[in-house]
Design a protein that fits this description.
It is an enzyme of class 7 (translocase). Helix 7 packs antiparallel against helix 8, helix 9 packs antiparallel against helix 26 and helix 31 runs antiparallel to helix 35. This protein has 38 helices and 38 strands. The protein has about 1200 residues and is an alpha+beta fold. Among the domains are: about 130 residues, Calcium-transporting ATPase, cytoplasmic transduction domain A (Distorted Sandwich); about 220 residues, Rossmann fold (3-Layer(aba) Sandwich), CATH 3.40.50; about 180 residues, Calcium-transporting ATPase, cytoplasmic domain N, CATH 3.40.1110; about 200 residues, no CATH class. The protein has a nine-stranded mixed beta sheet, sandwiched between helices. The longest helix is centred in the last third of the chain and has 41 residues.
């Protein structure tokens, strides 16, 4: 691949950015230097003078453990789980004579589980340590005296060091900018790692340090910086610099933050102010909120339930044991003579029956501990990690264009993906691409651009119109297909002004001025490819880039920028030549959220001074002069049409300045800049405001933020799955509504309930300025609108096919989220098919998410792509980050990262459904197999007069959960599928099994536990009945405890593994190996273990299988009979349930068996029968299609009646 070199035109714009760089903080802030919170002192170029302050070094650590704390902290984490703590207590008690088994057999399984979990924690922490090591050992150049800069590791940096950072490198610490390769100390910084924004920020050094731009000039530099103490605020900084007996105020404009990257600047010099964990990025690095799935929380309740049951049966047995022990010796007569009650130890002493009963209680608690699955937690963690691995490697959720796969950043919430009830989605960059395309414009009252937006397509479908290759625009028809390659950011088609044809238009002078303004009035930086000569642009926003690209494509190419000039290459359509026009930049007044506009003052080659301005219509129309409003009415109409089409609009205007007027403004503006008074910013704003008046209207631009590929289809599937979808956006209401139609969240015939404060009486009160009266009236109006909306929706008892959509603006949402209103608002919202919240702030997004989550108690999923979505993502049960154009902030705060919204369909309907089903069945089965095993122990102890004697050998007890039953359940958790991925998508209604939590309901959990109790009873009584009095060996011997225990244990292993085989829907070779292999391992273990002659290890299993059971036919017959008889109840129940009370997945499985599952008509009929009446009010393409059919039938019926 040929190497490409790019030449970046250097920008040195101190005058250019005079407005943007003017803020230095108020004098009140700097007066606080030296007080509490503002006490930090930094000696620049003298790092060794800071020993008394004990500033930390620059190394950082994000690990949870250290070498010293790993064992104690990790053990504490493990034993915070009640089950692990219970097994620890049991293990300690096993060291006493009370234990019914050896201490080793009790402690080994616990140690294995704890060690495995600690190893997992250790590996994860080791990876974090490696990341820290890589970061701390990055190299940067540091001044080491006499003007020499040496390469030093980041972790060795100290406060006060002077650092040289070169292009495309990260800043190693928080530093004060001293100078750069630009004469005016400008540098460009990318803060994506801090705030998720990809646009470049401009920093500028103080004027007094600009000449420190060479290594040798730092030989004798000594400065003292006094500033604020370390804090988490990224956007503020207060400090002063003392140098050469003068003090200079410092502002955020001089602060370079750790983890920001130097861009488009060859090098900078900076002084280290904050190091290590004192840096602002580390001050902000709080742990994300801990999230646990609802199934995991319910699992804890089940464990508490089993522990309570365990305690009850232990108490019951101990009471009976105490009564029977007391009755063992009466009047010298021994009832159970074989226990020798006349000479018994304290454990069987009739005279101390109460104490014996208490000791038995402790023994029983240890013995019945096998009701609790010791390997449950570690097995679930292993399964979830493997599930996450499958999600990460799903090729269907890989975005080839951005080369980004889906990434499950945490595996704790896999099953929650199959239980989502409500999705709360951002719009820009989530539903849309956040890649702006210039598509239309209005110039001198004439609309240009024949492209059709996706919103317009949706509107046309809504109205029953057709959109095809023939596109009408006024009287003009375009039938030619444009086969030119698509230019990113430019989707404009209109032969009237393309290819230089604008020269033939009657308003050609205004068209020329319009595109000149687009080519000049911006902050973009050009990059020229040396090989091809093509120009690309670094822009602060996608809108800016789209404007400059549009000007270039239409013959006005922004080409070069220098400190004082901007060069545009203009194509002369008449002579067909390209001319370079150089404009001298006099001032640039930056865009801000309060100004809502930006302006640039330039001098043309001909000598005219022009003010070029662009901004929002709400501020620009007010600034037009009397002679500049000629096309205002037509332009207003066009921008309203553009807004209805889902486009973003800006107004373009200009004015010619005479020399005298400009000089007066410049004098006033410069005086405001150098002012040190508290009202300095107001003076600058006043100066800018005075010149941006009496403008001449040129026209308006319209750019489209296109819907992401597959969004309408994805929303349709999610809606069919019964998932409610809310959109929380900062866009205005008209744009949000139109996007709602485009992606099928809204449809024709759907009743819109609009809650807004843009009403005459409220606006009149706002003009009066009485804040209390405004708030009171606004809140009452919102409450009234909510009440009216609730009344408009028919009650559930009244069947209705009408669908409702709730649309609310940001002002109204402020009052709707107040404590005394929010539940009424939620009541209205949950009754609507779709909800759109417009003009929402990041805080409001988070509050709405919290309200839905806490009030409905259903699983919520938030999805967004920007830093403003972080609060919403962290508040929701599941946060999905889209790795889009707004940086990685949302991804870093998310639980799962995807590249496109459409992948949400497969993530939820396929992987979510599978994970929910697998985890639910897996946990139920875990409790089933342990209840089965535990109840056989209880029954045998009852059979043996609650003597505390276990039915099984110590190591049989210990290895039950570890070897003989654990692997099949892990295989089920990883591989099982009730239906294929294709059928999951074809039958989205299947997803409701997770939303309604059908597979992990208390009815189902108790059913599995009951099945375990029943199986244990059948196993115990069949085995005891078969072997109690039967001479099963050739020499006529009957079974002893050792033989009976092995028979019962063999039956338990067979039954629970065969039960697993019956529960599996999708067999793989791995599941066959694990299920039948576990049974085979039991027999192999019995063979090997039976040959060991160590009394300390075993005294009940020696040769029991080889000599006693294997030669006996009865053993094999009983095993076969007990397994079949025990599984009959479950098999019968399952057969009846599937035949007469089938669940939805059973119906799909039956259709698949008949080879009809993939027939679209069969799928439609099955799905329509499955849906309840409440699920008929859907959104999406299907609902729109069904609604259109219904409306057509209604119209036809009306015509027939007429």
């Amino acid at each position: 691949m040929a190497r490409r070199s790019k030449r970046l035109e250097k920008l040195k714009p101190s005058a250019l950015y005079s407005f943007a760089l003017c803020h230095r903080g108020s004098s009140d802030d700097h007066s606080r230097i030296g007080t509490d919170g503002f006490s930090r002192v930094v000696y620049v170029n003298e790092p060794n003078r800071h020993e008394e302050f004990m500033y930390p070094l620059n190394g950082v650590s994000t690990t949870k453990y250290s070498l010293v704390t790993f064992v104690p902290k990790s053990l504490f984490e493990q034993f915070r789980r009640v089950a692990n703590f219970y097994f620890l207590v049991s293990g300690i008690l096993a060291l006493t004579p009370l234990a019914p088994y050896t201490a080793v057999s009790a402690l080994v399984p616990l140690c294995v589980v704890i060690a495995a979990t600690m190893a997992k924690e250790g590996v994860e922490d080791w990876r974090r340590k490696q990341q820290d090591h890589e970061l701390n050992n990055r190299i940067v150049k540091v001044h080491r005296g006499n003007g020499n800069f040496e390469e030093t590791r980041w972790k060795d940096l100290k406060v006060g060091d002077v650092v040289k950072v070169e292009k495309d490198n990260f800043f190693p610490a928080d530093m004060m900018l001293l100078s750069s390769n630009y004469p005016d100390g400008i540098c460009y910084v990318e803060t994506m790692n801090l705030d998720g924004e990809t646009n470049l920020k401009i920093k500028q050094a103080l004027e007094v340090t600009l000449d420190l731009n060479e290594d040798t000039k730092f030989r004798n530099v000594r400065q003292t910086i006094k500033c604020e103490d370390p804090n988490a605020n990224l956007y503020s900084f207060v400090g002063t610099m003392e140098w050469k007996d003068e003090q200079y105020p410092l502002s955020p404009q001089q602060l370079l933050l750790r983890d920001s990257k130097l861009r488009n600047t060859e090098f900078i010099y900076g002084a280290v102010i904050f190091t290590g964990h004192h840096t602002k990025v580390m001050q902000n690095s709080t742990d994300p909120p801990s999230k646990r799935s609802k199934i995991e929380k319910k699992m804890d309740i089940i464990i508490y339930f089993l522990m309570s049951s365990l305690l009850i049966i232990a108490l019951f047995g101990s009471v009976l044991f105490g009564i029977w022990t007391k009755e063992d010796l009466k009047n010298g007569v021994m009832k159970r003579w074989y226990l020798r009650p006349d000479a018994a130890t304290i454990y069987y002493d009739p005279k101390r029956a109460a104490l014996a009963s208490f000791f038995h209680l402790l023994t029983a608690l240890m013995l019945y501990s096998y009701f609790i699955p010791i390997s449950l937690y570690i097995s679930i963690e292993m399964v979830k990690i493997l599930q996450a691995l499958f999600i990460n490697n799903d090729i269907e959720m890989y975005d080839e264009e951005s080369d980004k796969p889906t990434h499950a950043r945490t595996s704790n919430l896999n099953e929650e993906l199959g239980m989502v009830d409500t999705i709360l989605s951002d719009k820009t960059g989530t539903l849309t691409c956040n890649m702006m395309e210039f598509i239309k414009c209005s110039i001198a009252g004439t609309a240009y651009g024949q492209g059709v937006t996706e919103v317009e397509r949706a509107m046309a479908v809504r109205k029953g119109a057709r959109i095809d290759a023939e596109i009408e625009n006024g009287d003009h028809k375009e039938k030619n297909v444009d086969e030119s390659p698509h230019v990113k950011g430019f989707n404009f088609k209109d032969p009237r002004i393309m290819d230089g044809n604008w020269i033939h238009e009657s308003n050609r002078d205004m068209i020329r001025d319009f595109f000149r303004l687009l080519a000049i009035c911006h902050t973009c930086i050009p990059e020229v490819d040396d090989e091809t000569g093509k120009v690309s642009y670094e822009a602060e926003s996608p809108d800016e880039a789209a404007f400059v690209i549009a000007a270039r494509e239409l013959g006005f190419e922004f080409y070069k920028r220098s400190q004082k000039n901007i060069t545009v290459r203009e194509r002369d359509p008449v002579r067909n030549v390209v001319e370079e026009r150089k404009y001298e930049i006099l001032n640039m007044l930056e865009f801000s959220s309060s100004r809502k506009r930006m302006s640039v003052i330039v001098k043309e080659p001909e000598g005219r001074i022009l003010l070029l301005s662009k901004g929002a219509d709400s501020v620009m129309f007010k600034r037009l002069g009397p002679s500049g409003r000629k096309f205002e009415e037509e332009t207003r109409r066009h921008i309203n049409e553009y807004s209805d089409s889902g486009l973003r609009t800006l107004i373009l205007a200009y004015r010619v300045l005479d020399e005298k007027e400009y000089k007066e403004f410049n004098k006033k503006f410069n005086a405001a800049k150098i002012s040190v008074s508290a009202d300095r910013d107001d003076k600058i704003e006043e100066a800018a405001d005075s010149i941006e008046r009496d403008l001449l209207l040129l026209g308006a631009t319209a750019v489209e933020d296109k819907l992401q590929k597959g969004v309408p289809e994805c929303i349709d599937k999610l809606a069919q799955a019964g998932i409610k979808i809310w959109v929380l956006t900062g866009d205005k209401m008209e744009t949000a509504i139109n996007i709602g139609f485009a992606c099928s969240l809204l449809r024709q015939g759907m009743t819109q309930i609009i809650i807004s404060l843009e009403q005459p009486d409220i606006i009149a009160k706002e003009k009066n300025g009485d804040k209390e009266a405004i708030a009171k009236a606004s809140k009452q109006r919102v409450m009234d609108q909510i009440e009216d909306g609730i009344k408009a929706i028919p009650p559930p008892s009244q069947f209705s096919t009408e669908s409702f959509a709730l649309i609310i603006d940001g002002k109204s949402l402020t009052y709707a989220l107040e404590d005394d209103v929010k539940f009424k608002f939620l009541d209205l919202a949950v009754k609507c098919a779709s909800v759109i919240c417009c003009r929402s702030s990041p805080k409001q997004k988070a509050l709405v998410t919290r309200l839905v989550k806490e009030a409905t108690h259903n699983v919520t999923l938030a999805i967004g792509d920007g830093a403003n979505d972080v609060g919403m993502l962290q508040e929701a049960d599941i946060g999905i980050g889209i790795s889009g154009a707004e940086g990685m902030q949302a991804v870093m705060a998310s639980d799962v990262a995807i590249a496109q919204f459409r992948f949400l369909e497969r993530l939820l309907l396929v992987h979510g459904h599978w994970c929910y089903r697998r985890i639910s069945v897996m946990i139920c089965y875990f409790f089933y197999k342990n209840v089965t095993f535990g109840v056989t122990i209880f029954l045998y102890e009852a059979f043996a007069s609650f003597s505390g004697k276990p039915a099984y050998d110590d190591w049989f007890l210990s290895l039950y959960n570890v070897f003989f039953t654990s692997l099949p359940v892990i295989a089920l958790g990883v591989f099982d599928q009730d239906v294929s991925a294709r059928l999951c998508l074809q039958y989205p209604e299947l997803y409701q099994e997770g939303v309604q939590n059908i597979l992990f309901s208390w009815r189902r959990i108790l059913g599995w536990i009951f099945n375990g109790v029943l199986n244990a009873i059948l196993i115990f009584f069949f085995c005891v009945t078969a072997f109690e009095d039967q001479a099963f060996r050739q020499n006529g011997q009957v079974a002893g405890l050792d033989a009976l225990g092995v028979v019962m244990y063999t039956c338990v292993v067979w039954v629970v593994n065969c039960q697993m085989a019956l529960s599996v829907n999708y067999f793989t070779i791995i599941q066959h190996i694990f299920i039948w292999g576990s049974i085979a391992v039991w027999y192999l273990f019995l063979l090997v273990y039976g040959t060991i002659q160590l009394p300390r290890l075993t005294n009940t299993a020696y040769m029991v299988f080889i000599e006693q059971l294997a030669p006996a036919l009865l053993f094999w017959l009983v095993t076969l009979f007990v397994v079949l008889a025990t599984l009959v109840p479950y098999f019968s129940y399952a057969a009846v349930q599937i035949r007469f009370f089938p669940m939805f997945h059973n119906k799909i499985q039956w259709k698949r068996y008949l080879r009809k599952a993939e027939d679209p008509e069969v799928a439609r009929q099955l799905s329509s029968r499955h849906r309840t009446s409440s699920q008929q009010m859907m959104v999406g393409i299907s609902a729109r299609r069904d609604g259109s059919k219904a409306m057509q039938i209604t119209r036809e019926t009306s015509l027939e009646l007429q």
